[in-house]
Amino acid sequence: MKIAKVIVDVPLMQTDKPFSYSLSAEFENLLEVGMRVHVPFGSGNRLVQGIVIGFEDEELEPSVNLKGISELLDVEPVLTDEQLWLADEMRHSVFSYKISCLKAMLPNLLNSNYDKLLKSTDGTSVKWSQLTEAEKISSAKAVRLGQLSVEYLAKSKENKKTEKFLSIPDIEKLAEFEIEKRAKKRLELKYFLLRLQEEKIAVRSLNFSSQIIKFFVEHDLVKIEEVEISRTKEKFEDVENDSAKILNSEQNAAYEKIIASSDKPFLLEGITGSGKTEVYLQTIDHFLKLGKTAIMLVPEISLTPQITNRFIARFGDKVAIMHSGLSDGEKYDEWRKIKSGKAQVVVGARSAIFAPVENLGIIIIDEEHETSYKQDSSPRYHARDIALLRAKWHGARLVLGSATPSLETRARAMRGVYELLLLTKRANEAAILPEIKIIDMRSEISDQSANFSQSLLTKIKEKIDKDEQVILMLNRRGYSSFVMCRECGFVVDCPNCDISLTLHMDTRTLNCHYCGHVEGIPQTCPNCHSRKIRYYGSGTQKVEEELREIMPEARVLRMDVDTTRTKNAHEKILEKFGNHEADILLGTQMIAKGLDFPNVTLVGVINADTGLNLPDFRASERSFELLMQVAGRAGRADKKGEVLIQTFNPHHYAIEMTKAQDYEKFYEMEMRFRRELSYPPYYFTVQVLVSHQDEEVAIQKSYEIAQLLKQNLTEKAKILGPTARPIARTHNLYHYQILVKYRFEEELESALNQVLELTQLRDNKNLRVLIDSEPQNF
Ligand code: ADP
Ligand code: ZN
Ligand code: ZN
Prior knowledge:
- The protein is built from 24 helices and 33 strands.
- The chain is an alpha/beta fold.
- It folds into 5 domains: 1-147, GIY-YIG endonuclease (3-Layer(aba) Sandwich), CATH 3.40.1440; 161-227; 238-421, 3-Layer(aba) Sandwich (Rossmann fold), CATH 3.40.50.300; 433-480 and 536-672, P-loop containing nucleotide triphosphate hydrolases (Rossmann fold); 682-771, CATH 3.30.70.600.
- It has a 7-stranded parallel sheet with strand order 14-15-13-16-17-12-18, with helices on both faces. A 6-stranded parallel sheet has the order 19-29-28-20-27-26, with helices on both faces. The chain has a 5-stranded antiparallel sheet with strand order 2-1-4-3-5.
- The structure holds adenosine-5'-diphosphate and zinc ion (2 copies).
- One zinc ion (ZN) binds at residues 494, 496-497, 512, 514-515, 517.
- Residues 520-690 form the Helicase C-terminal domain.
- Zn(2+) 1 binds at residues 485, 488, 525, 528.
- One of its GO terms (biological process) is DNA replication initiation.
């Protein structure tokens, strides 16, 4: 009898191995490896989704009674052999279930409930869900024979060419409408709507359930209308064509090396504006001409529409774009474009590394030091590791690019594991490197302002008077505004998380950035009832307000999480700034990356220090990268750029090396520090996170786990903790952590698997253990 081996979508340790299901004669000719099926599972024979990973012919004892496959979900494989192999390889480093590795490779639409439309050549079509089992089997056969074609449908109506938009008929009414404090989601939507900058917003871009929205419709707080739209087309329309530039000698040397050999991955290290992107474009072009394909990863692509436009300008509709800002339907469209071979260049954020391209010629990871390449939920993979595997499978090139490579990558290049390619000059000869000045805030605090030194204000004024533009960055990491009582020091905390609530001035609310809790601002102190309760700190909103007061003539655009929540909001803000509809772009870290505005001649950093003081061994590296990156936004064309950095730590080496624009020196100093304290890249790290509702249980289990690790690892491994997490409680769970530092531990994987097995014990039902290999955030 023929048997199908199926990985089922049930998160249990034992489900990592495939289960056997018998195949009826009907299914035998239809089913292939890489297709999804519904199978009965467990004692209740609940139907679960599964992925077929192989077949076997087995002589079975008559007594063995195998369950059969219930339903086909695909008419052709959705996963390739390569992807099945990747999932196997990946599993060892990410400590996730195989099914979650496999699901990471599929667009959401194929992981959730969906329907298919079967279209015949005469134009009629029928929905898969309306067919009987027998009809499904015969339709699947018809698809094989090319008599029917298939289109997957999203649950929502997004495949239609209409779009629902929401508008607010009466903002006063909405503002005054009382919502019960307990109805958190409703409250959240209310405040979200009050903050809305646009007149209309697409309903599907809202992160709220239809029930919540319905409540607002029923109370006449919002209006919904359906509007005709054209999907996906728009992005190719207004991009001009662009042709290759003649490479300078450094660029050319890099280009030649990359196309010549695939023995080692390359590190393309070049200062901002040195023409790395031009090298990417031309090497990709080389492989396209050989009939191959390419993957280009960029961090958080929605933040850098300028980059995607350069790819579209060069390669037109050969480009598929994958990023988190797309709806499930749009993602599925791009996935299909790639799978069918219509797109040969995939430009995307982290998960695009799994794009189902065949015949891969080159993979490029731009800004390889970015932490967004590591997924911080399960499966916790790093795109770089997946890229290495895929490059191996295809014999493809792998290029890691950065102006400030991560220490891990640079150290590998120094040891010869990667080949180092250097670009030392700006490609556009007229563009010289900006001049960087450090402003010592200890002696420069002005009476006029809490955030700005006099030197920065004078400089901004000077630039605006010359009709030039300014970028101002506020480092928000570890920094937020909060409400405190001046009488007793009481700070308003989230009831579910050990963290103070962040003040949102525009909505006059206090929000938890972890769990989404929202509440009003108290008039008196909840602790001592004093009226001396005050707002503290200054987020981007406060800086914006201050700027408007001091310099009312300056036109300011703000870019932060609040102003970019809606679809395409980034693009709109950047477009306005690009059209010189504003003089100043004020924002958080999100403005540091990838922007290229020739008229920007001044970059100001409001607070360089906030990132330096975080309890994370990468704090200096992150600050240096960020400052170098934002400095690179100034003077990109023929006007010389200036950078002013305000700091209370002018002699910190991350600040001094930024001023000198000296990556090499920073690398040396930072490596010395890492060696002394046994941190990466001298040691590998793995973090075990233990969470439980009951703090005592969390502590006790953490000690048990640390003990288990000590017993299984050699003395050379350093086991730190358990200690409480920096934010010890979120979502009503207490969190403890153990950090293992090691160089080579043969038993590490099996020891960590033992740790995971603990959670499968009946006694530990509410225990949550996460294993994060090479964690990026502490
Ligand atoms: P990076 O990616 O290193 O920041 P880019 O590739 O964006 O650098 O190049 C910076 C600017 O220089 C861009 O405007 C680009 O068009 C231009 N440029 C790059 N290479 C060349 C070249 N060989 N000749 C002329 N201009 C170039
Ligand atoms: Zn919270
Ligand atoms: Zn008080």
